Every structure is written in structure tokens, then in C-alpha cells.
Amino acid sequence: MKKNLMIFVLVLTILIGMICVTNAESNQPEFLQNLFHEYFPDCTYEDGYLQYDETVIIIGRKPDGILVLLCGAYEGEDGWEWVESTPLPEGTRIGDENITDAVNMNAWRGGAAVGVRRMERGRWSIHYVNSYDFFVGPDWVGMYGAETDAQFFGTHVWGDITTIDWSTLPPEEYIDRETQEERSARISAYVDRTNWATPAHSDPEATTELLSEKGNEDSLLGRFYDGTPLLVLEQGKTWTKVKIGHGEDIGVMIGWMRTQDLVFGDDTLHIEREAIRIKSEQVLIPTVETFISSRAGQITEEQFSSCLIIGGTDQGLVIAYYLPDGDVGMIPMSSLGIGNG
């Protein structure tokens, strides 16, 4: 009886949380303020927004007068999970003209308006700055969203709102008479490529093998094209251990590549990549048994410019890198349209 009561209370708690989020869109201000005061009774509510993925962003003033961004996500039986940012500039509010979810830090006076999103549980990141033209991914920055010819891979300082210095955000990205080369040089300087590499061959048809055990050809994980973004975990004279994809678990591949097949650091800037085009809605086949649904999930035809085709397998599958989240998955070759790889 006692066990059944506990289960009932748990289910009821989850249902109440789901109902609260579902009904919140019709009454955002009241919902957000009530939620804020429940979890932060000693702080002052300044502004807030319920995002399309049912996460919330709230600007609050702490008892010491400091403004912070409080990002929340409902985690079922665990309740609401909150992440607090570093201090925000005074005057920050939510919304910037028609970009209603922007965290606006006096953009009209030369500051920045940014979007924030949850990358994974417990971690929130910047994902656009000032407009929908300058985007930030987990391992890249670039103009024009996630288009593959305008990205620069590496480590940047905007991947975690708990450590970010908001003053480092770039200024308005429209610069009169700036050439494409000048813009590329300016934007590429936002990332640190010190621990990054990519396959590079004189023959564009050549690929680089990723092995789970160095030197063991029977441990092949896939063959990768030039331009595949690689985080270097361990570099040796003959073999280099690399990581493909963002995060720690789902949607990540880790293995060994021959060092002679790679270029490192700033040399990665000169290697071209290919976009992937998908004929119709497809589901990523995961690189591990767990289905990649936590972030990437389904990739639709409209999202083709958000993918890189980075390799292939002996089973007739191509390996795709989903840029917004950094997930890696596999797609049947039959799903691809013209102009891949």
C-alpha cells in the first residue's frame, strides 16, 4: 500500500509538471514569475521567456544586486533543473525587436543580443549572436547559420554560460566593404584550433580510417573524408587518438587515425568540406545502440545544410555530423540526394 502511494505521488508530480509547462504558453508572465519565486524566493524577477522546447530563460536580480540568467528545464521526476550564468550587464532584458527569445544586453547601444540553448543536461551555451547570421555551435562558429562553407571549427569561449565573459561576444557582424577573406579571417579568430585536426589528402577521393584499436585493421569504425572535425585526445608520431562529435556519450566516436593522414591546428583552415543533402525525412542510425534522440533525433530535408557528410562504412552507410548539437550518426546511402561527398 505504501509503495503504491509513493508511485502515485511520483506520477502525479510528473503530470503536474507537464501540465504546468503545457499551459504556460498562454500565460507566460504569470507562469514564469510563479516558477521563479518558487525556486528563487530571495531574488527579484526582471524578465523571462518560455522557449519553443519548453525550457525557460529568466533574468533575475540576486540579493546583492547582480543580474544573472537563470535557465531551467523540467526533468520529470527530478523536477526543475536550473543553471545560473555569470553576471549580466546592467540593463539586460529578454527580446530584441522581432527576436523574442534574445537575451538583449543593450544591443541598441553597441551591446549584444544572443540566443541561449541547452546543449545537454546541466550545460547551456550561446547559439546565435545579434541576429540569425552569426551562429555558435558546440565546436564551431560561423556566419549564415550552419552552412558548411562559412564555419570554423575549434574551441571557443561561449560554450558554457556558467563561465562566459559576456563582454567577449562579437559586435554587429555587418561590416561595410568587408571582403569575404577579411570576414573569414575575423570570424576564424574566434576559435582556438590548438587541439584540433582533420584528415587531409592530395587525392580528394582518399579517406582516413578510424580504428578503435590502433594498428588493428579489424577494429574499423569508419572511413572519413577530408575536413572532418577532430578533437585531438592524444597525438603520437604514428597514431593519433581523436574524438568526433560533441559530448561524452551518445553521438560520439573515439578512435585512432594515422598521424600522417592528418593536419593540425591552423592548417585545418585550408581543407574543404562537403554538405549532405537528404531526399526526404530520415532518422539517424546511431553509432552506438542507444538511439540518438536526445538532441539530433530526426534530420529533415529542410535541415540538410545543418549536416556534414564526414565518412562512410563498409555497410553502405554514410556518417553524418549534425552541426547544431555535434551529434554523429549514420544514414543509408540510398537516402542521399545529388551532390554529396
General description of the model:
- 13% of the residues lie in helices and 35% in strands.
- By secondary structure, it is mostly beta strands.
- The chain has a seven-stranded antiparallel β-sheet with strand order 5-6-7-8-9-10-11, with no helix packed on it. Strands 13-14-22-23-24-20 form a six-stranded antiparallel β-sheet, with no helix packed on it.
- The model is unreliable at 5-26 and 276-294 (pLDDT under 50).
**Order of helix and strand elements from N to C terminus:** HHEEEEEEEEEEEHEEEEEEEEEEEEE
Number of helices: 3
How large a portion of the residues is in β-strands, by DSSP E? 35-45%
Shape: globular
* Residue share in helix: 10-25%
Instruction: Summarize the biggest pleated sheet.
Output: 7 strands, antiparallel
Oligomeric state of this protein: single chain
How many domain units? 2
Mean pLDDT: 80
Gap between N and C termini:
61 Å
Number of strands: 24
